[in-house]
Amino acid sequence: xxxxxxxxxxxxxxxxxxxxxxxxxxxxxxxxxxxxxxxxxxxxxxxxxxxxxxxxxxxxxxxxxxxxxxxxxxxxxxxxxxxxxxxxxxxxxxxxxxxxxxxxxxxxxxxxxxxxxxxxxxxxxxxxxxxxxxxxxxxxxxxxxxxxxxxxxxxxxxxxxxxxxxxxxxxxxxxxxxxxxxxxxxxxxxxxxxxxxxxxxxxxxxxxxxxxxxxxxxxxxxxxxxxxxxxxxxxxxxxxxxxxxxxxxxxxxxxxxxxxxxxxxxxxxxxxxxxxxxxxxxxxxxxxxxxxxxxxxxxxxxxxxxxxxxxxxxxxxxxxxxxxxxxxxxxxxxxxxxxxxxxxxxxxxxxxxxxxx
Length: 357
What we know:
This protein is α/β, with parallel strands linked by helices. It has 2 domains: 10-62 and 343-348, Nicotinate-nucleotide-dimethylbenzimidazole phosphoribosyltransferase (CobT), small domain (5,6-Dimethylbenzimidazole Phosphoribosyltransferase, Chain: A, domain 1, Orthogonal Bundle), CATH 1.10.1610; 66-338, Nicotinate-nucleotide-dimethylbenzimidazole phosphoribosyltransferase (CobT), large domain (Rossmann fold, 3-Layer(aba) Sandwich). Helices cover 46% and strands 9% of the residues. It has 14 helices and 6 strands. The protein has helices at 10-15, 22-34, 44-56, 88-99, 103-111, 151-170, 186-197, 201-204, 213-229, 242-249, 252-266, 276-288, 305-314, 336-348; strands spanning 66-73, 114-121, 132-133, 175-181, 270-273, 296-298. Strands 3-2-1-4-5-6 form a 6-stranded parallel β-sheet. α12 links the parallel β5 and β6. α6 (151-170) packs across α10 (242-249), α7 (186-197) crosses α13 (305-314) and α12 runs parallel beside α13. It is globular and about 70 Å long.
């Protein structure tokens, strides 16, 4: 039984997120430093395995079971022309996930990661086989005219994410990657990241699904309007908190992933962050519950400019630079082999003691 399955409120779940186990990290760090190599010469791989030990609270961490959770939702702001594709593509891609034909399915098979697809806010009335039903509402409201959702709806989506990862933890999963599907979701992602980091929207707004420069500039103006209409100004923290920002200019799948981050940390699971949408969710989780930071691993650096701003604000460093911007968790699962390598280093390399030195 998972440790958070009986929790009733987000505050109770927050309280279950503990600091990493310093004693385990120290002992694993000592072993890593005694491996037959110069100290620190394997760089981030050394940091990874030490932190995995701290997360799991053991000197013998494992990643025998891992998953990617793909949260799906639609966005009312698509009405403003922020995407090169219509909202219907969200549902079509959910069907593609269910048939195993998407990039995330292909990569996850190679990485031996379970794929969990969750409808937390799509417009579909009938879900494809294998898609988990956790719908809070059928798409967000158009945030260019008011809040994308209520605070209560954002909290419900977070709780949906927590329930999913709670089940994964109960089945023995040790890590979860963040995946997403939702046409138009780079717009709320950029809005969240602009609100939390204070960075200008012009710097943060990319081309998303392939907008030309003229439409990208129009997208900047729409994001600015969304922030203004919803009262997200430089002093928003004097009257609201991170949950309010998530509700006003966020998305249901972003809120669902926020819940995955929080639930995973409460269950002592590593969290692998994907691109800009997952980055926005990780940033929202960090804003709402800062203690999740130690459980986060950044996978790749997205081509979307807001992604680096989100990771930098949290204090995360991406490992892979592949020019990717697909989403789905496709970049996140590519970190799993590096995490495996860090564990292989710990268990497979000889120590200087073994050599009699």
